């Protein structure tokens, strides 16, 4: 079974973000980047399916130059090949532009299954996988908690809202977006990191793939959200803060 | 030109966010000075269409077909493509539900149009909508516009508009039943009936006090500290999604869009950053206390009392004070 898994490099969690002077995006300098956490679950699921059914796992990203390290990380964890569609504009691209690039690269590869994470921790569109399926003409299912790929068809468990689930059957090839927590992700081993250096790594430019990077939705301005709630910040030593809090919860909020 | 809201229902019952989407649509249609249409989709859902006709809407559009009894991305997007062809709306609004996350990106992409997901607000500038959405896990907001001509697509976040803000109509609106021809062979997915896993052992919805832990708890060995605080407060212990994903607490203690929605008197968030998926499950709490090391954590935007500190210093101090009080 040939599995394509889409990964994105995003700014590390808990980073202190600074908005660039024109207010359009964040300043990159000084930040560290990592694989989008929801994508780590998609990658892990791809590796597990390969271990069970054989075949190949190809990790693909559309991102700026720095994103190559995220593809390498996927190779170190066990992906067989990497594809990087490189262009600085992908750092801020909308879903459609990203999905178009991914689709153009994926069309060149035989594929039975395409996996993506649920959403990205930066732009958080939560739709690149579904748009990609539509552009490739494939059926899709989202927020997947279990995959049974043993038969001719894919049997998947979808998460619905508020504790409900649903089993769905799809013909192959198909695209699935993976819910975080579906598995326990592995770490790269030293041996894996060494091996990754010799694994095939393909680079494309948008021109190579004959695609334009054009946004259909534009971020006009990025800014700090306004406080909707007047938060009272408590200060002092841990003991003083705790005493203040208990007093406020008793006499001000009257919830104790 | 019109604004079209696509509502969601299951077995003849509204999804609770359908009304919120109607409220958003009423506001959008007023700002854009155009007619307001509401679509009701499913099989045998004319009663729901009649309910909507009592609201302030220009027309209710009924998409009623046996192929729409169970949700499928292929069936629903075929039906909506036909509705959009016939109605030519400028803007199509959805509630941001799990079903919409599965459907709307496909529908918009099939028309080569953008879909602004999970918007928390909208305004009109130069007769075009500007949407506000959250980025970087809620740390920053962005104003988003859409290129080209419509139809444009957007979904609104749970709680961004109020269901009780929906205005009734002066008279009953007309219901237009659309002629649909859905190709059942084009529906590639076969869905089964939705089901629940083991019933929720704890009903967090009934708890008056909830102590909830997030990534800041760092290690499963630290959970008992939070547990001790919950006990001292006489409350229940809960968690954000990553904690349950890691198996540190069972899934039935998860608060958020994929877990339980609660509105206790007191919600004490320990080491929870406040990503929207969590916040939608608890922002109805009467009093919110947040303890987090990061002063920029979005949880402080909704907290009544904020403590920027190491939770491992605050929690034991709180337990000591609460236990001494008794």
Describe the structure.
The complex is a heterodimer of chains A (256) and B (326). Chain A is an alpha/beta fold and 256 residues long. Chain A folds into two domains: 2-209, HUPs (Rossmann fold, 3-Layer(aba) Sandwich), CATH 3.40.50; 225-256, no CATH class. Chain A has seven helices and 13 strands. Chain A has helices at 37-53, 68-77, 95-106, 128-136, 190-196, 206-209, 238-252, and strands spanning 2-6, 9-11, 33-35, 56-63, 81-86, 113-117, 140-148, 153-159, 164-171, 174-178, 201-204, 217-223, 232-233. In chain A, strands 9-8-7-10-6-1-4-5-11 form a nine-stranded mixed beta sheet, with helices on both faces. In chain A, helix 2 packs across helix 5 (190-196) and helix 3 crosses helix 4. Chain B has 326 residues and is an alpha/beta fold. Chain B has two domains: 3-186, HUPs (Rossmann fold), CATH 3.40.50.620; 204-325, Rossmann fold. Chain B contains eight helices and 18 strands. Chain B has helices at residues 17-32, 46-53, 73-87, 98-110, 223-233, 241-245, 276-279, 311-325, and strands at residues 3-6, 9-10, 13-14, 36-42, 59-64, 91-95, 115-125, 128-135, 140-146, 152-156, 174-177, 190-191, 195-196, 209-213, 236-239, 266-270, 287-292, 305-308. In chain B, strand 2 (9-10) and strand 3 form a beta hairpin. In chain B, helix 3 (73-87) packs across helix 4 and helix 5 packs parallel to helix 8 (311-325).
Characteristic key phrases:
heterodimer, A: 256 residues, alpha/beta, Rossmann fold, 2 domains, two-stranded antiparallel ribbon, 7 helices, globular, B: alpha/beta, 9-stranded mixed sheet, 8 helices, 18 strands, 27% helix
